[in-house]
TrEMBL record:
Coiled coil: none annotated. InterPro entries: AraC-bd (IPR003313), AraC_XylS_family_regulators (IPR050204), Homeodomain-like_sf (IPR009057), HTH-like (IPR037923), HTH_AraC (IPR018060). Keywords: DNA-binding, Transcription, Transcription regulation. The lineage of its organism: Bacteria, Bacillati, Bacillota, Bacilli, Bacillales. This is AraC-like DNA-binding protein. Transmembrane segments: none annotated. GO terms for molecular function: DNA-binding transcription factor activity; sequence-specific DNA binding. SUPFAM superfamilies: Homeodomain-like, Regulatory protein AraC. The keyword NAD does not apply.
Length: 277
């Protein structure tokens, strides 16, 4: 076990684009965070089983060898799945000006329990961060920033390596390139009226084939992916521009205001105005 370790950065937060706020692992007990956590988190389930209950997403079950990337401010609670079994959960919380753009790039991986083919490597990196932070020196903070970036890339690399459809009727490499084209189109135009038929056409597939391929690769439908992207962008706008109106955010992400409010509450458990405080 790695006891909870709080990183004190001696006012380096303004210099470091990515920094660790806390790291550790323990036998996880029930924890309720109705307002979410103040920093982004990567959670690694080493042994036992646990349940994450995330507002708007229901119950997500973590089993040994899985990971969960959870953005800051997302209401949630979590607890062991069985009272007679210990749940060994590792965690690292991080923040910084580069954190939100990185998670934006990894949007298809967040708030989803994912199997980690490279779990042992991820756990070793978590332990390395813990030992580094425990040194409590200024150089350790700079180095931990580099290693935190490495941990995020390793999580992304593991998912990229692991996404192989069981049956691929398309030529090798073609489906992956098509999905990359589709995802880029979605990220470039998520705030516009995107028709699934147009996205599928840009990828070179029929709507039915594209829909199936997308779900196999990302675990959500293209429409759900776009909605998740818009919701996360709305939170980012509220954080970047505290005085921005709900109506303006809805406009910027391409949603009608009342629909945006309804989807925001379904996703985060509170209305945009309640979230803004």
């Amino acid at each position: 076990m790695m006891p909870f370790l709080l990183a004190e950065f001696a006012n380096l937060e303004q210099l470091l684009p990515l920094y660790v706020t806390c790291v550790g692992s323990h036998a996880q007990k029930h924890l309720d965070r109705p307002d979410g956590y103040t920093a982004h988190q990567i959670l690694l389930s080493r042994s036992g089983r646990g349940v994450f209950r995330i507002a708007g997403l229901g119950d997500l079950r973590m089993t040994p060898g899985t990971l969960l990337i959870l953005p800051a401010g997302v209401p949630h609670e979590y607890y062991p799945d069985r009272s007679d079994e210990s749940w060994d959960l590792g965690f690292v919380a991080f923040d910084g000006s580069a954190a939100a753009p990185l998670l934006h790039q990894m949007a298809h991986l967040v708030t989803t329990v994912l199997p980690a083919p490279n779990f042992n490597d991820l756990w070793s990196q978590l332990e390395s961060l813990w030992h580094l932070i425990s040194l409590n020196g200024e150089q350790a903070y700079w180095e931990s920033s580099k290693r935190m970036y490495g941990l995020l890339l390793s999580a992304l690399e593991g998912q990229t390596a692991g996404k192989r459809p069981a049956k691929n009727v398309y030529p090798a490499g073609q489906s992956n390139a098509a999905l990359q084209t589709a995802v880029k189109l979605i990220h470039d135009h998520y705030n516009e009226r995107l028709l699934l038929a147009n996205v599928a056409r840009a990828a070179g597939y029929s709507v039915q084939h594209f829909h199936r391929l997308f779900v196999e690769s990302f675990g959500v439908t293209p429409q759900q992916y776009i909605l998740q992207l818009r919701m996360r962008r709305s939170v980012q706008l509220f954080e970047e521009q505290p005085g921005i109106s709900v109506e303006k955010v809805a406009e910027l992400i391409g949603m009608e205001t009342s629909y945006f409010i309804r989807m925001f509450k379904r996703t985060y458990g509170k209305t945009p105005k309640q979230y803004k405080g």
